TrEMBL record:
The keyword Glycosyltransferase does not apply. This is Oleandomycin resistance ATPase. Keywords: ATP-binding, Coiled coil, Nucleotide-binding. The keyword Nucleotide-binding applies.
Length: 167
């Protein structure tokens, strides 16, 4: 486990550390704000987004994209609240039926996201027991996990959109 391992290192020491970790045969848990370092020495990246640990198959670029989405959503909520005639508790501009439909879809997506996360976690845990010499099988499992994560990303995007309507 390494916590901010690049702090106070000169470039020569940083290069030496990267070389050692790049060839490290075991598992590393690295917590760092140094995105270049993370991309260089890790195969999988995770981040805490909206209070939850989130796998980032797209690495730091995906993290930056998701953070930008969160910031845009926060800005649009702020702009809606500061618009003339609106107040923090004025609610969405939806009819009763539209509001119920949005709430229903929002709840449905939340349940589906929880189920997907359980499936992803279970599939990752199953990789440990999978025959490590079965590259075809491992590849198929990773493809299945990737499809689940892609679905999760799409649902999260829709969930954010619906959340904005409900605020």
């Amino acid at each position: 486990m390494l916590g901010e391992p690049t702090n106070d290192l000169d470039t020569d020491m940083l290069a030496a550390l990267e070389d050692v970790l790049d060839s490290w045969p075991g598992t590393l848990l690295v917590v760092s704000h140094d995105r270049y370092f993370l991309e260089r020495v890790t195969d999988q990246q995770y981040a805490i987004l909206a209070g939850h640990l989130r796998h980032l198959p797209g690495g730091v670029d995906e993290y930056l994209r998701l953070r930008a989405m969160e910031e845009r959503a926060a800005e649009s909520r702020g702009a809606a609240l500061s618009a003339p005639g609106s107040t923090a508790d004025s609610g969405p501009a939806l009819t009763g039926a539209e509001l119920r439909a949005v709430q229903k879809e929002f709840a449905s997506i939340e349940r589906r996201l929880e189920k997907l996360q359980r499936q992803i976690d279970g599939a990752r845990a199953a990789l440990v027991d999978h025959d490590q010499s079965d590259y075809v099988g491992l590849g198929a499992e990773m493809k299945r996990i990737g499809a689940l994560e892609a679905e999760q990303q799409q649902l999260e995007s829709r969930w954010y959109e619906l959340g904005e309507l409900l605020e």
